[in-house]
């Protein structure tokens, strides 16, 4: 008696299996995303600026971050498409910038990064503020979203500095940080957390407006997030107790 041949899986079955894999990998992927993001901000960028690690390590780490973003945003076709476009713009801009550094190539690279950050932030914001139980991964998503604010404004500051040299006081000479932009990243997060050490200051009107907006977000976001998470936890406990 001949053994029965396995039937090839239909397209619908493949889609279900891919969706199951994505759902299973989404929460661990968020943990990896947070780890890579923290590594990029607090380790790779400063060490690149110091010359401790070679500058090509910075785009390599960013590429890993983009892969994590694609895994997390894959189920949202619009977000995944936006991230894919962002990767293309950023890659083209980086290659052209190395050959011929101009404001246009910097805008291509920075614009690509901004699109990826915004697409990821929209997807994560839906997860963080959606109804449901407060979990560890929801809290991780909230941290990723907070760090995204700092990265987004850092990108804006770099673009302003390229278009209008002298827009910030206290910056090191161009090229001294091996293209890492570590000082502006530091400025972005000290502004977001409203530390304001005073060693750097925005001089351009647009830079000042963005710094004010970032400081406001840095104050409002934690308060709004805490209120939302508390209300979600209270609602979950009421449902659990049959109330």
Describe the structure.
- By secondary structure, the protein is mostly helical.
- The chain has one domain: Helix Hairpins (Orthogonal Bundle), CATH 1.10.287.
- Helices cover 75% and strands 2% of the residues.
- The chain has seven helices and two strands.
- It has a two-stranded antiparallel ribbon with strand order 1-2.
- The longest helix is centred in the first third of the chain and has 40 residues, at 11-50.
- The radius of gyration is 21 Å and the shape is globular.
- The model has no long low-confidence stretch (mean pLDDT 81).
How many beta-strand elements?
A: 2
| Total of DSSP H or I helical runs spanning 4+ residues | 7
Residue windows where pLDDT falls under 50 for at least 5 positions:
none
Determine the mean pLDDT: 81
- Biggest sheet details: 2 strands, antiparallel
Order of helices and strands: HHHHHEHEH
Topology, element by element:
Blueprint: H1 11-50, H2 57-73, H3 77-99, H4 103-129, H5 136-163, E1 168-169, H6 182-192, E2 201-202, H7 205-240
Antiparallel strand pairs: 1-2
Helix pairs in contact: 1-2, 1-5, 2-3, 2-4, 3-4, 4-5, 5-6, 5-7
Short recap of the structure:
The chain has seven helices and two strands, in the order H-H-H-H-H-E-H-E-H. It has helices spanning 11-50, 57-73, 77-99, 103-129, 136-163, 182-192, 205-240; strands spanning 168-169, 201-202.
Descriptors:
mainly alpha, globular, 75% helix, 243 residues, 7 helices, Helix Hairpins, single chain
């Amino acid at each position: 008696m001949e053994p029965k041949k396995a039937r090839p899986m239909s397209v619908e079955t493949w889609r279900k299996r891919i969706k199951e894999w994505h759902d299973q990998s989404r929460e661990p992927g968020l943990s990896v995303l947070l780890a890579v993001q923290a590594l990029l901000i607090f380790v790779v960028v400063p060490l690149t600026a110091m010359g401790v690690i070679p500058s090509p390590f910075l785009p390599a780490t960013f590429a890993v971050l983009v892969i994590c973003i694609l895994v997390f945003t894959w189920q949202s076709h619009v977000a995944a498409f936006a991230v894919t476009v962002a990767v293309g713009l950023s890659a083209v801009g980086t290659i052209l910038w190395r050959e011929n550094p101009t404001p246009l190539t910097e805008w291509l690279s920075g614009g690509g990064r901004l699109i990826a950050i915004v697409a990821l932030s929209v997807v994560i914001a839906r997860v963080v503020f959606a109804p449901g139980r407060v979990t560890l991964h929801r809290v991780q998503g909230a941290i990723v979203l907070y760090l995204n604010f700092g990265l987004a404004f850092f990108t804006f500051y770099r673009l302003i500095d390229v278009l209008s040299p002298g827009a910030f006081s206290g910056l090191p000479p161009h090229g001294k940080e091996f293209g890492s932009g570590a000082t502006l990243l530091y400025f972005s997060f000290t502004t977001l957390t409203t530390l304001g050490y005073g060693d750097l200051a925005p001089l351009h009107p647009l830079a000042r407006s963005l710094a004010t907006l970032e400081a406001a977000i840095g104050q409002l976001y934690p308060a709004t997030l805490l209120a939302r998470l508390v209300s979600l936890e209270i609602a979950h406990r009421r449902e659990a107790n049959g109330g």
